[in-house]
Amino acid sequence: MSIIPSAVFQVDLAAIEFNYRHAHTIAGKATEIAAVVKSDAYGLGLTSVAKALSHAGCNLFFVANLDEALSLRSAVLNARIVVFSGDVVKSRDVYREANLVAVVNSREDLVGIADATAPAPYFLNVETGFSRFGLNIDGLQDLKASGVFQNNPPSCIFSHLACSDNAHDLTNKQQRDRFIAAAKMFPEASRSLSASAGLWLGRAYHFDIARIGSALYGLNNARIYPNPLRSVARLRAPLVDIRNVPHRQAVGYGATFRTRRDTCLGIVGIGYKHGLPWACANKLNVKIGQYIAPVVGRISMEYTTVDLTDVPEFARERGGAVDFLYDDFGIDELAAAAGVSSQEVAIRLGASCPRDYPERAIEWGAVASMVGRRGSDTGSVIEKVA
Q1: Cβ contacts of 332 within 8 Å, gap of 6 or more
Q2: Can you give the pTM of this predicted structure?
């Protein structure tokens, strides 16, 4: 019994470098672009993405937790690494030994930093209207008056915009005003307010550091058209079976699609197991070479069915590549079809599919022999194929 080939999630590292440099162009020379590589770089591969960004000149990275920070430290030895969430008190030695920067999200974190024998750099999270972590301004004023910051002031003040994907939302200005008021208490600290969508709010929102995640990965959160960012991901899966069915034949679970003619169907080796959203049933077009074919019927756990009737017979080949993400249909479009966020789609695909980077050619026969085996770095043996 032959092994069925798996889907492959391809990541264009050169496109990520381009998007990083483009973010620099938008923000201007006065603003440092920090890379947010949390959640395995949004599913694209933490260490591989970080190395590419480091090559592009990035020296400041944000991760979700200490596990990610320690993995990243082994890949980018000299970079500054900021940890969004971690037990600052219990893990104080880990931060020091790995040269990591803690984020202070609470009074408890702040006390842990203040009680440290040797001062350590930290970023102070200020709550300005997002209602997730951070010290509010009234609490900061009380703490400042108590002298807790005297021996070890924050190296950076930051906050997070709730509505930066809508430039007309007045919440943005309200948060900016609150942020400026908080930052005035620490005039020596650098300031960071904007994430990816905040790039397009203008330089009044950029301050000293912009924390860019989604935009690096080509996700158009701010809905700027035409999208100035390069597409980063490509999703390919093998055509594993071809069959002819008659007019009015039900296709897939629930018979959500019935053929309207004698139809050639292709069974593709990808399903919601691989992160392809179940809600995309009957809503996608895939690409086979230069030809377009619609997805028909429900997406099942490991397979998706496409209508190959209008694809020339010479282009239908078992084991041939079927593209679900391609030049003019990226993660944003796939997410819109499914009614979910682009970040969710990227993370699910990256976590569920073997990953490949396009400078390394892959033969589908090689893919077939690797299904089910995982690599030790970013999650795919395929990454190690020459």
Answers
A1: 218, 219, 220, 227, 342
A2: 0.88
- 8 Å CB contact between 195 and 212: yes
Active site residues: 38, 253
Backbone angles phi, psi at 287, to 5 degrees: -120, 130
Tell me the backbone φ, ψ of residue 101, rounded to 5 degrees: -105, 125
Alpha carbon of residue 95 to chain centroid? 25
Question: Is residue 332 within 8 Å of residue 232, measured between CB atoms?
Answer: no
Axis-axis angle for helices 13-27, 46-55 (nearest 10)? 50
Reference 361, options 338, 382, 331, 333; nearest CA is 382
Tally Cβ neighbours within 10 Å of residue 349. 25
Per-residue pLDDT of 194-207, as tens digits, reads: 999 999 999 999 99
Dist. CA 111–CA 348, nearest whole Å = 37
Q: Which residue, chain included where needed, has tokens 């381009």?
A: 18
pLDDT digits (tens, 9 = 90+) for 332-375: 999 999 999 999 999 999 999 999 998 743 433 344 333 333 33
Hey, is 206 helix, strand or coil?
Answer: coil
- What one-character-per-residue DSSP string does 76-111 give? STTSEEEESS--TTTTHHHHHHTT-EEEE-SHHHHH
Distance of CA 328 to the CA centre of its chain: 19
Q: Is 143 helix (H, G, I), strand (E, B) or coil?
A: helix
User: What does the block give as tokens for 37?
Assistant: 């590589």
Burial of 11 (0-12, 13-18, 19+ CB in 10 A): buried
